[in-house]
């Protein structure tokens, strides 16, 4: 578990960091390092330069900005999981963060890092997707916003360009209720997800009026299950309506198998997790 | 033995004493091998095979050799003169130190790189160009046993031997047992239940991977070797044997060792190879496993497939039990490899009296060697037996506790009871133990609650299992059965030793032959000596693990250290006490027979006010001119304890589970253990051992799977792919005890290191199968991860057996 030789830089400002990234071939951003460092130790990935953003001021806070929450690049999973405003406005993300890794990983790893890494079995990317988050990327060329629905491109691949840093994610304060459900590899909520589902939805006049469902672990990337909401919107959100809508969870998704789940099992689990998350979200929204 | 009685109102033996080793371990001041930095020390990385089976066409190390800081690259030819790896039970193909013409498992070492830094060594290892010609591997156990393809082309068969009993080795008796079982099957009133089950391969994965530093002193012509090992003396002997040295030329030190579970009960090729490199290069050389090395190139455990058949009558009387299995030895035999199923054979019939025919064949495959992993053969044996009894109970519709009770070896058969292969057992009272479990757990209430929840459609199950263990090895006479350590220059039986020395200030040093890998020797041994001498625990220092100073002990494994080396230390302390009584008698002008030890000193019976301290006694001992004529100076004693038998702990466990039928997720709700390890030296340490043992048994039942893929790949390189249980995955264990002391040793202790593991996997599987039984599920192979449980549920539904 000894990585190849690499250079380490620790810029004191975002400008400095983006300029290092812009001028250095093969540089990689280091935040909590909980995914990156194991890959380097296994020599599966060997960047020439690590740009540690941990000493840049202003990246470690969760801010309520009126119409949205902003979670900075260095906010740990533990901070996301325990923040009252996240619990109130983005319960799915709080839950997903609380089920990420173990205590040490949650204290060291970051929410933005997990989202930028985009592991298909990670919990927080699908929560961000279901919540309609906006990703804020900074580079030497400036700052741009990327909708969550455009952000996840493929396995371990996002819309971030090589010179960009995911500096924060913004989650709209949109009312309604959200929830995250998963089954971990060791059962329960422990460990990476075999499959999971994140839901945000709102209820108006006794009917589900809008929402999003996003799946963890089943396809090549966190994926919106649009058919589910299509089926659910306009219904009363009853268990029966939810059960029927959940059957459409896999429309447009190519399910991948792995050591912990066959295609058949993961497809089944995606529906079960969707159903359970929907039930919780409806209860939270009403 | 001379006079001297310890008077104490509360015996320190059997009391909770906090582990004295923990402050150093918790505060980070304990020394592990990888902490060691010696001047000029070099580092090793291995070039390992990416194939399970391949010809090695060429090894080109020229690029690596040219890299900065690289001192040497060694291949098989460089070490051929050292022979194969020293091995105790030399049956089957022995491991070459480095693979030559062929590699026979994934991760087999082909070349060793020695460099100034561990990073540089790894870089250079990556630069060694090995050309392989891949061959088809033999991975599947049944295919291996069929000899359709040979693992080693120079061997006639993949099957090394089959352990068959019993009585062990007596062919006529085996035939008679088989006939009795066949007759029982032919009876009209009997039913037979048969099933095949896998007891999957496991990776030991101690938290501290193995690490070794060898330092050849060319002036003295001696090695000093630090290693994370369970068997320091055997390692010293193995190195001496390999390099043609004497035992005094090799000093091995096992400092703090962070878990072993049997995987450090081997002399490894890397331990020999770093010695070789140190000798060649004249520098200390270190090798520390990466987690990937630990997963693929340290021994594995288990790896059996077997068919169990159980036959009995509807009233619960079992008339025959048969096990027909294949055990995976991996590509090479190491220390105990083929002996592991033999340990299972001993306890193949568990706590029961019924005729048992047990046959397990040992086969080579193109995988890493298997050897002792916590329980070592006994968990496998207990698993099949207790799954079979449950299956039989379900078939005849009888409570599984009742079936077990009906077939126990009765308590009144002890002493004198023997196993199904005729090996004598020490003490046992199985029914009392089971009754205590059922009463403590509230078994009848739990059953009623389970049945009530079932009516609500919930998948709730109760699992019961009993076990008897053979451990505390002993007997010394195992040496006559071929189990000696002669390959390591130690033609010793399974005996133990201890040395007790009272220092001049009245404190005591205890030096023991075995060392801990987490068991708490420093605490338990201090309690033993304190109990015999009346010297407070805090004034006793326990040392271990340095072969230059410690008496010969063969190691901490097989739950033997307290029973054997602890007993030796007990006897050494008694010798010291006898002499101390003579010394105190001289000081107090009394008879040694009247000397009593209490409150940190000695007095004459009836006159507790006239006390001499241990310091007074020791001062006299070290001023021999003051001694009476004929008395020797000094105050220390060494004792060797030669056990007449192994010990036979036992117990019964109960688990309550609920299965989520939608996902296959198993929740372990309660786990209740009633263990009997004889007398208890320290209840807290015993509980700790059971906690860890249960976690490992439950880990096998629910999470862990070290099986290779069909192509010989091992996809479990880290804790991401190989999920170990954590405290978050386990309930709070409910631990209880019955106490049936052994008569094999003076302490009456049987050993507790492996009991939790031996008792638990089948308890959990029995509970999950019970939970799924309303669906018609009769068996699910371990590990019971959600996918597998869900698939079993689907299969049962598809089969239309849903009730």
What are its keywords?
heterodimer; A: 286 residues; alpha+beta; Uridine Diphospho-n-acetylenolpyruvylglucosamine Reductase, domain 2; Uridine Diphospho-n-acetylenolpyruvylglucosamine Reductase, domain 3; Enolase-like, domain 1; 3 domains; five-stranded antiparallel sheet; four-stranded antiparallel sheet; 12 helices; B: 803 residues; Aldehyde Oxidoreductase, domain 4; Aldehyde Oxidoreductase, domain 3; five-stranded mixed sheet; 20 helices; 27 strands
Description:
The complex is a heterodimer of chains A (286) and B (803). Chain A contains twelve helices and 14 strands. With 286 residues, chain A is α+β, with helices and mostly antiparallel strands. In chain A, the strands form four sheets. Chain A has a five-stranded antiparallel beta sheet. With 803 residues, chain B is α+β, with helices and mostly antiparallel strands. In chain B, 30% of the residues lie in helices and 22% in strands. Chain B has 20 helices and 27 strands. In chain B, strand 10 and strand 11 form a beta hairpin. Chains A and B meet through helix 12 of A and helix 4 and helix 20 of B.
Question: Summed up, what is this model?
Answer:
The complex is a heterodimer of chains A (286) and B (803). Chain A is built from 12 helices and 14 strands. Chain A has 286 residues and is α+β, with helices and mostly antiparallel strands.
Oligomer: heterodimer
Our Rg estimate of chain A from Cα atoms comes to 19 Å
CATH fold naming of the largest domain in chain B = Aldehyde Oxidoreductase, domain 4
CATH class annotation of the largest domain in chain A? Alpha Beta
User: What is the structural class of chain B?
Assistant: alpha+beta
Poorly predicted segments of chain A: none
Structural class of chain A: alpha+beta
Average residue pLDDT of chain B: 95
How would you describe the shape of chain B?
globular
